[in-house]
Design a protein that fits this description.
This protein is an all-alpha fold. Helices cover 71% and strands 0% of the residues.
């Protein structure tokens, strides 16, 4: 009888992930004001200062016949996903294993397993954050009149979510692998910042030196920006849309397996 009751009370994988997601949501309610600038106001400042200010000096022929503001707008929507991941998947993940954070350790003391904790955190970072913050940014940028493709521009938010799905598990894996929190800034220096700057958001990727082109093609933000630009400005992406999506999906799947292996190694005790 006791065993039967225990089995009925044990959460399914979906229920367990949902519970872990709700913990991340509860934590976010305490720190959301600290993310407003990077995930909300910063892209708007980029649009005003660079898209409109610098864009006044850039000929449309240099950016595929678009105004410069129209050119960078979809990339800004997608890059918000990368900015958010810097907040959501670096210090919070590493801190989950440490005494100064400990929320992973606390969850591990419940029926939640390591994979449940991972799935809940990814659900928060890949679904909730992009479809809230990126949507807000996309709506605000619409007031600048930078979308030329009507309601298709809404798909820029989906492209941003795909970028999150591709990058989040790898950042989780990296942050879970670092033992010393003083080394966490390496993730920003060698991943978040380069990806944000050199993925075709602010200038055409074709303008990059030839020896750097493979790095551009490897960037999930470049693939997401190409998809977002196709949605907002009806510009043909560099590759067929399905090829961009397949690449992002491959990164998401392989990253999930890497992150699963790492979190299981850290939390199976």
């Amino acid at each position: 009888m006791t065993t039967a009751i225990a089995d009925r009370s044990a959460p399914t994988p979906a229920q367990a992930a949902w519970r872990a997601f709700n913990l991340q949501l509860a934590l976010y309610k305490h720190v959301w004001h600290g993310t407003v600038f990077t995930s909300g106001l910063l892209p708007v400042l980029y649009m005003v200062s660079i898209g409109i200010g610098v864009g006044a000096y850039i000929d449309s022929s240099a950016v595929g016949g678009l105004t410069y503001a129209e050119f960078i707008a979809p990339g800004l929507v997608a890059s918000v996903a990368v900015m958010m991941l810097g907040n959501d998947m670096v210090f919070p993940v590493h801190g989950g294993y440490e005494d100064w954070g400990g929320h992973y350790l606390a969850q591990r003391a419940t029926p939640l397993g390591p994979v449940d904790i991972l799935n809940g955190h990814l659900l928060y970072a890949v679904v909730f954050r992009p479809f809230t913050n990126c949507t807000v940014v996309a709506i605000v940028l619409a007031f600048f009149g930078v979308y030329t493709n009507g309601w298709w521009a809404a798909f820029a938010v989906i492209a941003a979510a795909l970028v999150s799905a591709a990058l989040a598990p790898w950042l989780h894996f990296w942050a879970s692998s670092i033992k010393n929190d003083s080394n966490l800034n390496m993730i920003f220096r060698f991943a978040v910042v380069p990806i944000s700057l050199f993925s075709g958001v602010f200038f055409p990727a074709a303008e990059m030196p030839g020896f750097l082109q493979p790095l551009v093609w490897a960037s999930p933000l470049w693939h997401g920006t190409e998809l977002a630009r196709a949605a907002t400005a009806d510009v043909a992406p560099a590759l067929p849309p399905l090829a961009h999506i397949a690449y992002l999906a491959a990164l998401a799947v392989t990253g999930w397996y890497a992150a699963r292996w790492r979190i299981q190694k850290r939390l199976n005790f």
